[in-house]
Amino acid sequence: MARPITQAQRREDILRAAISLVGETDLAQLSLAQVADRLGVTTNAIRYYYSDIESLTAELAARSNTRFYEDRLALIDTIADHEKRLEAVIEAGLPTGPEDAEWRVIWMAILDAGFDLKNRSDVQAIYHRQVGLYESLLAAGSRAGDFDLQQEARDIAMTLMSMEDYLGYRIAARDPLVSRKTALHLMKDFVRVSVRPQSLEHGFQSGQSRHRDS
Fold first, then answer.
1. Using CA atoms in the order 17, 18, 19, 23, what is the torsion angle rounded to 10 degrees?
2. Going by CATH, does the domain composed of 61-214 fall within 1.10.357.10?
3. Model confidence over 63-92: pLDDT tens digits?
């Protein structure tokens, strides 16, 4: 007998269907009916979990906490070396390439909040939470003597996050002059001059990625 689908599974199915649809069209055109059609269920079945498209969009934006914060925290725990940790966090924050549908959707959902972040504390916090992640990495590396910070850790962290966001956007928006390889090169060159790792063998000097560039 097939195992019953849990509510958590159904929510994930709905979100993945929405991601797939936005990857093909645009967030502004997304509707609950489209998601329902993709899953082969009724619109009311989707409304059981998401009352309207706004609540679904908000949950898509919240996925950034999983991919860009929680998953990166878990990644850090698997790496002992501070330089390799920083490199891995940089690589994990960028889109895998222009076809990275989840990255595109998360940022479409965030941008959907508009230009009034003071009224959207949930979206406002996304950037600053990740800045804090970078800042803690930089501070830990500095305390260990592995980093020679040329600026305050938070200033470097904010610059890295701003580079990650904007260069990631250019990749996801299919700018032919900005690839994942280019973004990694620029970010790692910034690390080389602002963080000055004690050794450069891990990729900061050349900006090479161990991920396939799209």
1. 100
2. yes
3. 888 899 999 999 999 999 999 999 999 999
